[in-house]
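tl;dr need the bound structure. longer version: we got a ligand (zinc ion) that a collaborator sent over and nobodys looked at where it sits. i said id run it. heres the input, straight from their email, havent touched it
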Amino acid sequence: MMRKPVTLLLFVAGLAGLLSFTGKTPPGDPGRPKSVLATIVVDAGHGGPARGAKGLISYEADVALAISLKLGQRIQEVFPDTRVVYTRTSDTVFGVNVDARTANRMRAELANEVKGDLFLSIHCNATPQKAGGWYAKRVVGHTTKTVTVGKGAKKKKKTVRVPIYENYWVKNERHGTETYIWAADRSGVKSTFIKPEESAEFTEDSGTAYVAPDLNSPEARIRAQLYEKKFFGKSLTLGNMVEEEFAKAGRLSGGVKQRNWEQIWVLQATGMPSILVETGFITNEEEEKYLNSEQGQAEIVENIVTALKRYKEALEGAPARAEITTGTTHVDSTVVTPDTSGKQ
Ligand SMILES: [Zn+2]
């Protein structure tokens, strides 16, 4: 494992503080294989100096934290044997005011240190335009105006045609969810980071002395191969389930997107299945209200938890009781899973 000494120091200090508010350690049961949800790292995006995207009434860092804390609590209720580890439970990551990139390295180190089985990163999306909307001008007609042209003796009056403008409101309409996973490594192709598409969510910058992680170092290559072989498929499976649950709840789902953005490098740096959930657009007035509401946050949490149930059943097999009652080995998990999406 590669670590910079300074980061390691910060990390150890942070880890000691973090472990004190993680859930209980799962009971040792050598007879059973480890659950795919044994340890879940819940990561509230941004924090500290990185506020994330800005809405009309809130910052992404605060919304992500509120949802993450509720998600961790609900995971603990629904899966009592799961250990939940948070990357932050307050505004700052690890209680230290570090820049976004250092914070991402520390997130990955923590997730690997606690041997997480799943990394769930919670974010809000944003467009580069103003939150809510903006005024724009358009021509609605023309009129004539008399103007004076020329100087001195050559001065004369002239009639010109001029446009009539109208201000109109352009609503920031983009809304809905999407889930990012790290794109699988294409064997033999030199890996490079690609630039994020136009998005205010990933434009924040931090520090100038920083050097981006090298995707072509031997360690990174090994990690990429491991990710492709062991974690890509599971990340995709869970990502699809999360987006399906959002869609069932009536949200507009943008589906699962594979990316190689430096800003989501953390997904690949954690040696475990990992997804980054964009829970909605903070730049859309209605969606920002939803993201900030108790009901909206509870619904988002329930959607993710339902996806986790399906994920567990898909990877570990349907619960034994379902097999007994149906007498079949093929059990559709959507039939046996109780609906707890909050829609009852
Ligand atoms: Zn974000």
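gonna send this back to them w/ a short note. The first strand starts at residue 39 and ends at 44.
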